[in-house]
Structures are given as structure tokens and as C-alpha cells.
Write a structure and sequence with these properties.
Layout (H helix, E strand, L loop, with lengths): L1 E5 L2 E5 L2 E5 L2 E4 L2 E6 L7 E5 L2 E15 L2 E13 L7 E5 L2 E3 L7 E5 L2 E7 L3 E5 L2 E6 L4
Parallel strand pairs: 3-7, 6-7, 7-8, 8-9, 8-10, 9-11, 10-12, 11-13, 12-14
Antiparallel strand pairs: 1-2, 1-6, 3-4, 4-5
Length: 136
């Protein structure tokens, strides 16, 4: 069971978390907590998560492996591996482990401590990885 903290309030999850328009949905169920009026949303996850889908936040920090991670706006920091894809439109992506899928960022840097097995792409920023395997 994962520990998920949103602006200091802690929830428990087995698989997925999404935040859309300030509403928190964990494992398909809306939970108490309305962050619609919060100017900044900080998310910290301790443990593994299959799906992370956030519309807007200041930052996401995960201390574990991730299936997929997506945000429209906000920095993403993952201390484990990414099994599939990770994507943000605005913000930096930092991953300590490997990425088995694609890493996409429109405006920001991509920094991967391990290998990238998918396609890394950024329109405005730098890409760094231990080894990048690009399919031809």
C-alpha cells in the first residue's frame, strides 16, 4: 500500500492516483480533499504506483517505481524505474532509474540516471541519460 501526500494530507493507494481540477481520485474513487483553490499542489508518493495522471501541480516526487506518469504542468522526480512512459508539458523530468518507454517534455529538461529504452523528446530543454537506445 502506497502513501500519497497531497499538500501535506496523506492518503493510501494500491494502484493509481489522478488529480483533475483539484479533485483527487485514488484507485478509481474520489477521496475527500478539494485542492481546486490551492495555488500550488505538491505531491509525494512513497511506494510504487501503476498510473499517475495529474493535470496541474507544482511538483510530483515518487520514491519507487512507476508504470506511467503524466502531468500537464509540473516537475516530475522519480527515484525508481519507469515501466512505460513519462510525460509533462511544462516542467523538468528527473528519473534515477531506467525508462522502458518514451520520455516526452515540451518545455523542460529530461535527466535520466539510468538507460532510456524508448524515445526521449523535448522541444525546449536538454536530454541526459546514461545510455539512450533509439529504435531506427
Amino acid at each position: 500500500m502506497n502513501s500519497i501526500s497531497v499538500n501535506g494530507k496523506t492518503y493510501r493507494s494500491k494502484k493509481s492516483i489522478s488529480i483533475s481540477k483539484g479533485k483527487v481520485i485514488i484507485d478509481g474513487q474520489k477521496v475527500s480533499g478539494d485542492y481546486e483553490n490551492d495555488k500550488e499542489i505538491y505531491i509525494k508518493i512513497e511506494g510504487e504506483v501503476n498510473t499517475l495522471d495529474i493535470d496541474v501541480c507544482e511538483s510530483i516526487e515518487i520514491t519507487g517505481n512507476v508504470g506511467t506518469a503524466k502531468t500537464s504542468q509540473g516537475d516530475i522526480k522519480i527515484d525508481g524505474d519507469v515501466i512505460a512512459d513519462v510525460k509533462t508539458s511544462q516542467g523538468d523530468i528527473e528519473i534515477e532509474g531506467d525508462v522502458n518507454g518514451n520520455v516526452t517534455n515540451n518545455m523542460g529538461d529530461i535527466k535520466v540516471g539510468g538507460d532510456i529504452y524508448g524515445k526521449p523528446k523535448t522541444s525546449m530543454g536538454d536530454i541526459k541519460g546514461k545510455k539512450i537506445y533509439i529504435e531506427k
